[in-house]
Design brief:
Blueprint lengths: L2 H14 L5 H13 L3 H7 L6 H15 L4 H5 L1 E4 L2 E4 L10 H19 L2 H4 L8 E5 L5 H9 L4 E6 L2 H13 L4 E5 L10 E6 L6 H4 L4 H4 L15 H9 L4 E10 L5 H10 L2 E8 L5 E8 L1
Parallel strand pairs: 3-4, 3-6, 4-5, 6-7
Antiparallel strand pairs: 1-2, 7-9, 8-9
């Protein structure tokens, strides 16, 4: 069996299993098994595969047919081009969330440039302080620290399992992050310049209608946003003013139909300069507000 034939067979099986991106996923899994990049795969596509590679490939194909997420099968994904370990302990980082990370990075760089470097050098004295609330896999916290090393990052989650995974990812990338087990702000005892969060925001009744990869293999705790999907926004925005320095910012990921409701909650809780930012598909994805 050639590499081309193996991928074609996997693609067919994925299509029969109802996997939408069958062609892409069959190719990614083949590159994963063989340790190839796309250029190498194209060069050898008509070559015969070694039997042990065939066996390993179709073992993983059989797992994907059962709708186990591709990222869980491989054990990793990329977020902001940073490889991160993923498993059932936390939500798989999505490309949509990279928009939240990009917007936060832009803000952090602006705030860092405003600080006096001589003060920042004294035991980290005046570093921009960031809290990643509901950190999950740690994707935001790790990316922010790796890509903006001059900021100080704390990350929290209610799930001890998620925090363990986040710590592993931080350790892999030598990211100096303080992790706190906390139900939102329960165990947070300082103020920050920026709070960033990707909270659960899917309406409870919708969770059971999601794809099997999500509803059966990702923690419901990271998905269920209450009856209308806004439960966590209400809690976060009601409490977070106390944990932000004057003039501090909060940035959150939102569902594509939630901008108006979350904007109203921000206004109600005293935030100004409220902005809604679109993702690459042109959908509302990030909301940002400033504490008066």
């Amino acid at each position: 069996m050639t590499y081309r034939e193996a991928q074609a067979e996997a693609k067919k099986r994925f299509e029969e299993a109802g996997i939408e991106e069958a062609d892409v996923e069959s190719r990614i899994l083949l590159m994963h098994v063989c340790g190839f990049d796309i250029t190498r795969l194209l060069c050898v596509k008509n070559d015969e595969m070694r039997p042990e590679r065939i066996d390993k490939y179709f073992l993983l194909v059989s797992l994907r047919e059962k709708r186990i997420p591709l990222q869980h099968i491989m054990g990793y994904t990329f977020f902001m081009d940073i490889p991160l370990k993923v498993d059932e302990r936390a939500l798989i980082p999505r490309q949509d969330t990279e928009e939240l990370c990009e917007q936060t990075l832009n803000l952090l760089h602006d705030l860092t440039e405003e600080r006096d470097p001589s003060v920042m050098d004294r035991a980290g004295g005046d570093k921009v302080k960031v809290l990643d609330l509901c950190t999950g896999s740690g994707c935001l916290a790790v990316a922010l620290k790796v890509l903006c090393p001059d900021c100080s990052v704390q990350a929290s989650d209610i799930s001890e399992d998620a925090l363990a995974l986040a710590r592993e990812n931080a350790h892999t990338h030598k990211a100096d992050i303080t992790f706190v087990h906390s139900d939102l702000f329960e165990n947070i005892h300082r103020r920050f310049d920026v709070i960033v969060s990707n909270p659960p925001y899917i309406p409870a009744a919708t969770v059971d209608t999601l794809a099997p990869e999500v509803r059966e293999h990702e923690p419901r705790l990271a998905l269920d946003g209450g009856e209308d999907g806004l439960a966590y926004y209400r809690k976060i925005l009601k409490q977070c003013g106390y944990y932000l320095n004057p003039g501090g910012y909060i940035l959150m990921e939102i569902g594509s139909d939630q901008a108006e409701a979350v904007s109203a909650l921000m206004t109600e809780n005293g935030f100004s300069d409220i902005r809604v930012i679109h993702d690459l598909a042109g959908l509302d994805r990030v909301i940002r507000g400033r504490r008066e």
